[in-house]
Description:
By secondary structure, this protein is an all-beta fold. The chain folds into four domains: 2-89 and 113-176, Sandwich (Immunoglobulin-like); 184-249, Immunoglobulin-like; 254-320, Sandwich (Immunoglobulin-like), CATH 2.60.40.1120; 324-399, Carboxypeptidase-like, regulatory domain (Immunoglobulin-like, Sandwich). 0% of the residues lie in helices and 58% in strands. It is built from no helices and 37 strands. Strand 20 (218-225) and strand 21 form a beta hairpin. It starts with a strand and ends with a strand. The model is unreliable at 1-16 (pLDDT under 50).
Amino acid sequence: MLIIYATFSSSNNKSTENILTSSLTIFSNPPEALVYLNGDSLGQTPLQDLNLPTDHYSMSIVKKDYHTIDTTIFLSAGNPLQLDFLLQEIVITPPPIASEKPPPPKKVKPKPSFASLTIRSNPSKVTIWLNGQIKGQTPLQLSNIKPGEYQLKAGKENYETYKQKVSLRARENMVITPKLKLKTGSLIVVKEPHSARIRLNGKYMEDLDYPINQIPIGTYQLEITASGYATFNKAITITPDKVDTIYATLKRLEGELSVLVRPWGSIYINEQLHKSSADTKYKISLPVAQYEIKVIHPTLGTWKRSVKIQPEKVADLTVDFNQKIKMQVDAIDQAGNPVYAEIFLDNQNTGKSTPETIDVRLGFHRLMVKKDGYLTSNGEREIMVDEHLRDTQTFILNEIK
């Protein structure tokens, strides 16, 4: 007795009785054989897509003048089951005539034992050919196959054809799981800027497990990104054996720079003069990036700052050369003891000694301290004085011995 198992994936939509069912398809050669399941007639072959509760069943295949096939099947949550039976014809030898001498018995060749073949596949619903004859779609179970050599072919639209030689032995139940490869296409991306990076379905091209000229067919989300540029997005479809070309010029993102100088001054951006003697607010749109902004007044000094321009935002600067910033100046010896030293700003003696807080005009300044009998180890320093200045300016003095 042959026991056949099948699995079936139940639907997410449960019936009110929570009964799991499976699909059963039965073919026979020759057709029009009666099929009995647990003693009840299901009809004649071919029977296709019968929806039955999952369970064990006894099955009989009956046709006049052919040997009856009795078997057991098992339907369970998993895949639909397809059966293909080859019926053996009953050969009746006429009785000998009494008056005649019975003929010598004929040598009867032993009937061959059959094999069976179970075929699953990745992906599913792949069409199967055996020696050039279509046998159905996976998952597929073929019974009563004569032992021997067979050429198996599996095919599905948009997939490469799979071929395999199969050698079946008597009473063998062989399981085969062909894995079909998706056909591929090619993609060419012409992009500006050249440094922009490409992503397909969220993965950078260098992280994909296939080259750009062998992309599995299907629909993808193409994304091209570059710092300071708007992202380029496009849905693309890769088709078999075709080269798709995408041209992408990324739009440069911009922000705005606003500079107000008091009383007035010349404005430089990355060392290039943009506005001479500006005494009103100067505005300019700039590509997103980091810039060095410098403002020069011929007598009041120079101010400089690094400014980041962000997309659709305004970097608002006010440079007031009349503004005074408080700055703490200290001096110590090598042992860390305070030293009273004269404070010099821009080579001018301020008339004050350390430690002291002095008022300094906005902009670049040169600062140092001096004391007779001492040398300054860290010398004169240039300081950018603005509202961001927080650190105490500390000088170390070495006593001359």
